[in-house]
Amino acid sequence: MSKVDSSISQLRRKINVVDSSIMLAIHQQSARGSQARQELATAMRAVSELTTKVADIKRKAAQSEGMVQEICRDIRKLDNAKKHLTSTITTLRRLAMLVSATDQLETLAEKRSYVDAANLLGAVNELAMHFDNMTSVPRIAELRAKLNGIKAVLRAHALGDFDAMSRLSSSNAEDDAQDVVETAEDAALLARMRGACAVVDALGAQVRAEVVDRLCERELSAYTMA
């Protein structure tokens, strides 16, 4: 009987050891579960904070992009305004140059200063080309009309001098005397003719053809009359 009691006591001790081990394992597992839950909660908070930061970064990036686009639009507007302003200033400068050159050309035409007029006429024509698409502007239309009038005066003067030169040549050819006396007026006419040729050339192909036709007609008229 004593042996049985001893065995029972040993079994109870073993059971108690096993129970203690089980309880310890349960407590340890519970502690680890609690720690895992804490770690999971910490990780979830970190993910939430990271998500918030990413969203904030995206929002700020969108704001920055909007600001950049707005700045770019402003820069483009300023650039276009600068281009328009530069173009306007250039146009005004050309207009001032054209007005001044036209006034000078008018004076030269009145004086029959053909050489200077021919040189200036080329520059005036080049300046006037910049305003070909502005004929509806009253000031431009007025200036073009004035320029056309000056060209008409130069044409008339040149044609008149060529006619006078042709008459002078015919008169000298018909004169039997070898010692033809050249008047001061004739000398001045001869001096102008080289400049007149330059003016006719500057006035264009139509005026050149007109001069040639008139000279040919005058020269051939003598043979026709004969």
From TrEMBL:
Residues 2-224 form the Vps53 N-terminal domain. One of its GO terms (cellular component) is cytosol. Pfam families: Vps53_N (PF04100). GO terms for biological process: retrograde transport, endosome to Golgi. InterPro entries: Vps53, Vps53_N. It comes from the Eukaryota. This is Vps53 N-terminal domain-containing protein. It comes from Pycnococcus provasolii.
